[in-house]
Amino acid sequence: MQRMKRLKREYENLEQNEQVSCRPTNDNMDTFRAIIMGPSETPYSGRIYEILLNIPEKYPYEPPRVNFITPIYHPNIDPTGRICMDLLNIPPKGSWTPVIGLRNILQSIMCLLMNPNPDDPLMPEIAQEFKYNRELFERKARMLEPEKNGTWGDDPGVRRLI
């Protein structure tokens, strides 16, 4: 019951976020679908990315499982959409605490898109490119066209972001 109250409150706060569109995919609020715009002045600028947040039963004591659905070329995100970010793991491997919420997670993902962490990569080859050949990294990141880019139709969350 407390889990549901918290998720409803977090959802209300997310509705006020102008950088991200996020809403539950069902009444149980066990999965949220987020849409983010690639940050300006990055290789992801102008692109739309879909992220799924799977909320565990023990939330907020356990972090959500978060995955990019839209393909992205990034040193901290693998081809299956897994994200390497301390915030998404409980200690001692990570820094998750119950005070962290969905908004914090999505803001941290935006920060990760703006500032990849090549020193703790999920994709070492991409991290090497990012560190030693930034031009090549940026070209490859721009070349990877998200499959769903531009096909969101009348999604009001996407319209609000554009």
UniProtKB/TrEMBL annotation:
Residues 2-150 form the UBC core domain. It comes from the Eukaryota. SMART domains: UBCc. Transmembrane segments: none annotated. This is Ubiquitin-conjugating enzyme E2 T-like. SUPFAM superfamilies: UBC-like. InterPro entries: UBC, UBQ-conjugating_enzyme/RWD. Pfam families: UQ_con.
